[in-house]
UniProtKB/TrEMBL annotation:
Organism the protein comes from: Pelagibaculum spongiae
UniProt protein name: HTH lysR-type domain-containing protein
Domain HTH lysR-type: residue ranges: 6-63
A Gene Ontology molecular function term of the record: sequence-specific DNA binding
Family: Belongs to the LysR transcriptional regulatory family.
Presence of the UniProt keyword Transcription regulation in the record: yes
GO BP terms in the entry: DNA-templated transcription
Record's keyword annotation contains Transcription regulation: yes
Cross-referenced InterPro entries: LysR-type_TF_proteobact-type, LysR_HTH_N, LysR_subst-bd, WH-like_DNA-bd_sf, WH_DNA-bd_sf
Domain of life: Bacteria
Alphabetized UniProt keyword annotations: DNA-binding, Transcription, Transcription regulation
């Protein structure tokens, strides 16, 4: 095998094709033709002396060698993009991954105050519910997730505990006819947060009625705000709407325990100045929600 490094274009074509699982999709992302992607990858395979993909009439899948190389390239390109952004941007940019509901209902409104205090910083938010891989994705600086567990190679900081209660819009009438609405949780830690357990906790004071489930907690919250039902939601996500009297408690003394929000970052990153600044601000900003 030649000691000369392959071309950057060929390596990028392979990395994008490996991530997408398709030469066609890779071509669309790179703004070239599928033939050009195929040619780049063929040239790369020839230079390396290995097959990176197994080709068939059904498409392409990574070979054993491709499986080894792809994540290394993905991390390398992420780090290149991150460094370039850092040196060319006058603002100090931090990239945070968190859930859609926490981003829109908690973090988003609070960031206005952060920017007023720290105008030289920019916080880019990526939203997803699955656990992100901070160890291999260099484009992320930290993540906020609904979890209490340790993750090897990552530091974590406890942010908030939460509970779940029932709420409804103050203008709703005929509450006996309103359905119960809750979230169909993906996290096992919340599998007991449902209307059956809430009613049991309430000593069966509420007659059985229709139960509607949504896949996202934000959808449940919006249904409650529009008066479509009685919703079972997080005490953290509902704090703003209680303060503005857009929602009111339904059987205030009945609640179910939830989990906790944790901030995760790479090992020893909690000592970095930029992350310490954001974390110190965030702890203060969230103190009213505890």
């Amino acid at each position: 095998m030649s000691k000369r490094l392959p071309s950057l274009h060929a390596l990028q074509a392979f990395e994008v094709a490996a991530s997408s699982g398709s030469f066609k999709i890779a071509a669309e992302k790179l703004a070239v033709t599928p033939t050009a992607v195929s040619h780049q990858i063929r040239s790369l395979e020839k230079q390396l002396g290995i097959s990176l993909f197994i080709r068939s009439n059904k498409g392409v899948v990574l070979s054993a060698e491709g499986v080894q190389i792809a994540p290394v390239l993905r991390q390398a390109f992420s780090e290149i993009y991150r460094v370039i952004e850092h040196v060319t941007d006058s603002k100090k940019r931090l990239v945070l991954s968190t859930t859609p509901a926490f981003a829109s209902q908690v973090l988003g409104p609070l960031l206005v105050d952060f920017y007023q205090q720290y105008p030289d910083y920019e916080i880019a938010i990526q939203t997803e519910t699955r656990q992100c891989d901070l160890k291999s994705d260099a484009s992320l600086d930290f993540a906020i997730r609904y979890s209490g567990k340790d993750i090897l190679g990552l530091d974590r900081y406890h942010l908030l505990d939460e509970s779940f209660s029932a709420y409804l819009a103050p203008f709703t009438s005929c509450t006996d006819e309103l359905p119960f609405i809750h979230t169909l949780w993906q996290q096992s830690v919340l599998e007991n947060v449902n209307w059956q357990n809430w009613n049991r906790q309430a000593n069966d004071r509420v007659a059985n009625r229709r139960v509607i489930g949504f896949s996202e907690e934000e959808q449940v919250l919006q249904a409650g705000l529009s008066g479509k039902g009685i919703v079972l939601v997080s005490s953290i996500l509902v704090a703003y709407y209680l303060e503005k009297k857009l929602l009111v408690p339904f059987y205030k003394d009945t609640m179910l325990p939830g989990g906790c929000y944790q901030l995760y970052c790479r090992e020893n990153d909690l000592k970095k100045k930029d992350i310490l600044i954001f974390l110190s601000w965030l702890k203060t900003a969230l103190s009213d929600l505890r």
